């Protein structure tokens, strides 16, 4: 009987210890902002792949046509929760700073984008014209953002969501864009 009570007591203490560890880990997760938990930045120096895009009416667009100055190229999708959360602040960043932004949805068709953004999505929002776009830009998880200079060179890759109101993020974008940056 004494052995059973000792074993039972040890199990209760072990369980309490495991619950305490779990609570500590969860508290640490809540303290880590989602925008930085999975964020990674990489410096690049390579030509941007060709990028064919589609507007809501089916009109074709090309990345090269937009390269009169540096721009932010952002890949997202409606089925990506961090993307949906981040997109409004990215579009606000573009409006506030005058930074050209292309928010390229990897959704297959416009109805999903229109359900999220309305019938007339902002002009910065376009659809990837093919599934090959994600592969060409090595996009395996969303959101992913690139800074492209006016010559069409990828200068910076930002994996994961960002706080677009942050002065640090804005400075990082401006520094990567280089001369002619907004």
Give an overview of the whole structure:
The protein is an alpha+beta fold. It has two domains: 1-31; 36-177, Glutaredoxin (3-Layer(aba) Sandwich), CATH 3.40.30. It is 41% helix and 23% strand. The protein contains six helices and eight strands, in the order ααββββαβαβαββα. The chain has helices spanning 2-31, 34-37, 81-97, 110-117, 132-136, 167-177; strands at 40-47, 52-54, 60-62, 71-76, 101-105, 125-128, 144-148, 153-159. The chain has an eight-stranded mixed β-sheet with strand order 1-8-7-4-5-6-2-3. A hairpin with a 5-residue loop joins β2 (52-54) and β3. The protein is elongated and about 80 Å long. It starts with a helix and ends in a 5-residue tail after the last helix.
Q: What's the structural blueprint in terms of helices and strands?
A:
Layout: H1 2-31, H2 34-37, E1 40-47, E2 52-54, E3 60-62, E4 71-76, H3 81-97, E5 101-105, H4 110-117, E6 125-128, H5 132-136, E7 144-148, E8 153-159, H6 167-177
Parallel strand pairs: 4-5, 5-6
Antiparallel strand pairs: 1-8, 2-3, 2-6, 4-7, 7-8
């Amino acid at each position: 009987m004494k052995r059973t009570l000792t074993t039972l007591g040890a199990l209760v203490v072990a369980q309490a210890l495991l619950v305490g560890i779990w609570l500590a880990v969860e508290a640490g997760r809540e303290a880590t902002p989602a925008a930085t938990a999975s964020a990674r930045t990489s410096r690049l120096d390579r030509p941007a792949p060709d990028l064919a895009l589609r507007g809501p009416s089916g009109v074709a667009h090309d990345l090269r046509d937009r390269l009169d100055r540096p721009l932010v190229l952002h890949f997202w999708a409606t089925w990506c929760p961090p993307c949906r959360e981040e997109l409004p602040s990215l579009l606000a960043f573009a409006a506030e700073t005058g930074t050209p932004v292309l928010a390229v949805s990897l959704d297959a068709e416009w109805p999903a984008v229109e359900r999220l953004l309305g019938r007339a999505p902002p002009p910065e929002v376009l659809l990837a014209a093919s599934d090959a776009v994600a592969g060409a830009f090595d996009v395996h998880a969303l959101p992913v953002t690139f800074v492209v200079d006016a010559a069409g060179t990828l200068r910076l890759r930002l994996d994961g969501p960002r706080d677009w109101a942050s002065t640090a993020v804005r400075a990082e974008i401006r520094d990567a864009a280089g001369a002619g940056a907004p």
